[in-house]
Design a protein that fits this description.
Layout (H helix, E strand, L loop, with lengths): L1 E5 L3 H12 L5 E6 L2 H10 L4 E5 L7 H11 L3 E7 L5 H10 L3 E5 L12 H13 L11 H7 L8 E6 L3 H9 L9 E6 L6 H9 L6 E4 L3 E2 L5 E4 L4 E6 L2 E5 L11 H9 L6 E5 L8 H10 L2 E5 L9 H8 L4 E3 L1 H18 L4
Parallel strand pairs: 1-2, 1-3, 3-4, 4-5, 6-7, 6-13, 7-10, 8-10, 13-14, 14-15
Antiparallel strand pairs: 9-12, 11-12
Helix pairs in contact: 2-3, 3-4, 4-7, 7-12, 9-10, 10-11
Length: 347
Amino acid sequence: MKVAIAHQDRATVERLSRWVREQPDITLIWTAHNAADVLSKCAGHPVNLLLMGLDLPGMPAGTLTGRLMAESPCSILLLNQGCQPCFNHVFDALGQGAADAAILPVPAHWDQPESWDDLLNRLNTLRTLTGHRPRPSGPSDKAVAERAIPRELPSVVAIGSSTGGPKALATVLSRLPADFPATVVIVQHLDFHFIEGLAEWLDQSTPLPVAALTRETVLQPGKIWLAGRPEHVIVNQARSLGWTQEWPELISRPSIDVLFKSLAQHPSIRGCGVLLTGMGRDGAAGLLALRKSGFHTIAQDQASCVVYGMPKAAAELGAAAAVLPLADIGDAIVEHIARLHQAEPVS
């Protein structure tokens, strides 16, 4: 796997370069210290993965990411150094096509091997998604069925997203009204350190309250929950969301497939399953399970996706009852939930 590093601090680049060279089957191709250098080197010496700091001189991270996606596409792992993530920069760059974000250890912790664990986990996830590590198989429908308890739940909107997801989620959630009668549960592929910030950021886009889901929670209409732990979120009892550490082999934790399949095992549940922009196939099989269980299923169309990976996989499986532009998905959710509640009141 070909990797490049871009960071304004030369000492950080030197230490990060040593760390990258220690990883198996990775070749460090080049390093850069400013935005212009990144654009030039990406064009002349393409890489599979760019480890990119958020404060490169010469261009905001979001603008630079958009340029790279248009001119020299590659996977971009954003590096935030320190305890307080720069959420605005992170979500702007993610919206332009960056694949993920990770916490880069501060210099005082460079000699502590565990301080690199977060970066290593995100690196390994992207290696698998880009085809540089064998992809493990996902959980079977039967396995997820054994975890779910088939008791009635209120109507639920389950949404999965990955690369480009934050801005796509903001667009969808902005269309939900203040009196929306369903529960919304979201799995966004993102380092869990950034989920609280993403929830706060998304909260500005919708009249409904958005919160990170970090403990077992009773489902309530009009609430938006964003999976906030590096574990799989499941429906574990009536009206409750919980967590499982099963299926550790799955590269995405939490997994969209695990959530979707869990919901599909409750025959009395009705609602919507939505798969937005993202790399890989997570969520496609789960969306098909939701469709078979009676959910209305929606996949984002290719033209409006930052990365047409997960929705494409869903469309190829016949998992999506509707393939829609991003701008239409929120209204389609509202219309379907309204029809459900007109036809049969939800207790």
